[in-house]
Amino acid sequence: MDNNKKILVIDDDEGIVWVIKKALEPLGYSITSRPRLASGLKAVQNMPQVILLDLMLPDGDGLEGLREIRSVHPDAAVIMITAHAKMQSTITAMKEGAYDYLEKPFDIEELKIVVEKVFRDLSLRAELRELKKTVFESEYPQMIGKSPVMLKVFKDIGKVASKDVTVLVTGESGTGKELVAKAIHFNSSRSIGPFVAINAAAIPKDLLESELFGYRKGAFTGASKDKKGTIEMANGGTLFLDEISEMAPGLQAKLLRFLQEKEFSPIGSNEVKKADVRVIGATNKNLSEAVSKGLFREDLYYRFNVVQIKLPPLRDRKEDIPLFIKNFLRESVVKLETGEKALSKDAKDALLKYEWPGNVRELENVIKRACILSAGSVIEKKDLLIDEDSAWSVKDFLEEKLRRYLKDMSRVTNFNLYATVIAEVEKALISIVLRESGGNQLKTAKILGINRNTLRTKIKEYKIK
Question: Could you tell me the domains of the chain?
Answer without folding.
Answer: 6-128 (3.40.50.2300), 140-310 (3.40.50.300), 314-384 (1.10.8.60), 394-461 (1.10.10.60)
